Amino acid sequence: MYCISLKSITIPDSVTSIEEDAFSQCKSLKSITIPNSVTSIGDGAFMNCESLQSITIPDSVTSIGKSALFSCESLKSITIPDSVTSIEDTGFSWCESLKSITIPDSVTNTGNHAFMRCTALESITIPESVTSIGDSAFYHCDNLTICAPAGSYAIEYAKSNSIKFKRNLIFV
């Protein structure tokens, strides 16, 4: 925590959990390698890592805590694995460089303010499995288009919150 000059890190295979606030305020952190041994990422684990540009979360991770990537202003891409079932409150808020994101089919809900003030966010793909989207999840995401299956909760959410949407066609 507060390792201001840390630029990159490779977490060893012996680590199974990235604890709460573990890398919070590591403002120079640009890259991180998370091994398959990690199963959880704690609340605020990467909060305010302003220089972090991308992160790949391995398939072994089943939970990502509240505000885990809050205010990672340079974050341009993230891969959320199919093993994650929920996007917690303020999980990706203030990630001002994030342009698009795909939520995997395993996710059933997104928390309050989950993507709030992701001002560059243009596209989010939300699967039919998502049946709950928290309050102000996309507050100040003014250029956002939600892509989701016709008739899904995400499309209804977009309509009721005046968010642009695009229905995905599903071919069987």
Q: In percent terms, what proportion of residues is strand?
A: 15-25%
Main sheet specs: 4 strands, parallel
Quaternary structure annotation? single chain
- Along the chain, the helix and strand elements come as EEEEEEEEEEEEEHE
Secondary structure tally, helices: 1
SS-derived structural category: mainly beta
State the distance separating the first and last CA atoms: 48 Å
- The mean pLDDT is 94
Helical fraction: under 10%
The tally of beta strands, per DSSP, is 14
Global outline: globular
What value does the Rg take, in angstroms? 16 Å
Strand order across the largest sheet: 9-11-13-14
The poorly predicted ranges are none
List keywords for this structure.
single chain; mainly beta; about 5% helix; about 170 residues; 4-stranded parallel β-sheet; 3-stranded parallel β-sheet
Architecture blueprint of SSEs:
Elements: E1 8-10, E2 17-18, E3 31-33, E4 40-41, E5 54-56, E6 63-64, E7 77-79, E8 86-87, E9 100-102, E10 109-110, E11 123-125, E12 132-133, E13 145-149, H1 153-160, E14 164-168
Parallel strand pairs: 1-3, 2-4, 4-6, 5-7, 8-10, 9-11, 10-12, 11-13, 13-14
Provide a descriptive summary of the structure in words.
The chain is mainly β and 172 residues long. 5% of the residues lie in helices and 23% in strands. It is built from one helix and 14 strands. The protein has one helix spanning 153-160; strands spanning 8-10, 17-18, 31-33, 40-41, 54-56, 63-64, 77-79, 86-87, 100-102, 109-110, 123-125, 132-133, 145-149, 164-168. The strands form five sheets. The chain has a four-stranded parallel β-sheet with strand order 9-11-13-14, covered by helices on one side. The protein has a three-stranded parallel β-sheet with strand order 2-4-6, with no helix packed on it. The longest helix is centred in the C-terminal third of the chain and has 8 residues, at 153-160.
